[in-house]
Specification:
heterodimer, A: mainly alpha, 3 helices, 0% strand, B: mainly alpha, globular
Chain lengths: 75, 272
């Protein structure tokens, strides 16, 4: 195929790749935040610690989605 | 700051440069001067963020009164947030030694990220990879050297083989743990901060820039009303993302500092 079509295909594959990569962290963050809300509802006095740990967990899972985003720009 | 690319406003739905990294190009501020031709807006903003961080603490806490003035209250809250909420809560005893470092990176990254949403600047310094990479490198040195200082060379023994690993699995677990702690931690720390800010900057530049070009073109009579409505839609989305960016700026500064504290804690108190 000629060069222009290859460029468009590369761009399209990069977008699809990022879309697939965002499924996992999306599910992960949803599960994590849901469990954090449940924990805070069960024991409101532990809410501060639960909130801090929730942010920590969200940072780890979101890093994967963001690495995918950066690789999208690299391709 | 300046939309320096050409845009064919008639035919496209959104104005985007050919290569998105054109949005992050260095423009020298004084291209004709012999002495200062290297200076770009990133240098100026970086020094400004450092001065803002130092100035907040210095001027806020200079004349401390028992009943605090408002500025002293702000400085004290910022200090307490990092000292109590991050250093002492996460690292535990012995955590206060790391408070100066954690406070410095928290304030520097906070002001650096907030430059994304200040009106005339709109460029976060942490969207250039050198700055998050260097901060992550410093954190990495601190947690490795703190671990070696606390536990001697047995630090690597504890690192590679956490207690309770069966002997047959030790080589595999050793490799995985080594790569995870020595390479992935600083890398992910830097990339998390960098990619969040890059994503925000790209979205804000494209959305608000396109909205500006379309609506200005409509006001000047070059474009039709349909384009103005599209511009209005991009503008509303841009305003939404703008508010979200403020949250992301503060959150990313907090998460960088929190994760640095967690890594230091695993080096200094390995029994947890």
């Amino acid at each position: 195929m000629d060069a222009a079509a290859a460029e468009v295909l590369k761009g399209a594959l990069a977008v699809i790749g990022y879309g697939l990569a965002a499924i996992g962290p999306g599910l992960g963050i949803g599960v994590l935040a849901g469990n954090a809300v449940q924990a805070m509802a069960r024991q409101p006095e532990a809410a501060g610690m639960v909130r801090t740990t929730m942010f920590l967990g969200i940072a780890f899972t979101e890093a994967l989605a963001l690495i995918g985003f950066v690789l999208f720009f690299l391709a | 700051m300046i939309l320096a690319f050409e845009c064919d406003a008639e035919n496209v739905a959104m104005c985007a440069p050919e290569n998105v990294s054109d949005l992050f190009v260095f423009h020298p501020l004084f291209p004709d001067s012999e002495l200062l031709s290297w200076m770009t807006r990133t240098h100026v903003l970086m020094v400004l963020a450092a001065f803002l961080a130092i100035g907040l603490m210095y001027f806020g806490l200079r004349k401390r009164r028992l009943v605090p003035t408002k500025f002293q209250l702000v400085a004290e809250s910022a200090f307490n947030f990092v000292d109590q909420g991050i250093a002492k809560d996460v690292i535990g005893h012995g955590g206060q030694r790391y408070t100066p470092y954690l406070l410095s990176i928290f304030l520097f990254i906070l002001f650096g990220n907030l430059f994304e949403v200040t009106p005339l600047v709109n460029f976060p310094i942490t969207s250039r990879m050198a700055i998050p990479a260097f901060l992550a490198l410093v954190t990495w040195f601190i947690f490795v050297i703190a671990g070696i200082a606390k536990q001697g060379l047995g630090y690597f023994g504890h690192l590679l083989w956490p207690p309770g690993v069966p002997v047959a699995l030790k080589p595999l677990v050793g490799v995985i743990e080594f790569i995870s702690t020595i390479f992935v931690r600083p890398f992910s720390l830097a990339v998390r901060l960098f990619a969040n800010l890059v994503a925000g900057h790209v979205m804000l530049s494209l959305l608000l820039g396109t909205a500006g070009i379309f609506i200005w073109g409509f006001v000047q009579g070059d474009l039709g009303f349909g384009k103005a409505l599209t511009g209005g839609a991009w503008f509303l989305l841009g305003v939404g993302i703008f508010v979200f960016e403020i949250l992301v700026a503060v959150l990313q500064a907090y998460i960088f500092t929190l994760l640095s504290a967690v890594y230091i804690q695993t080096s200094v108190h390995p029994e947890h």
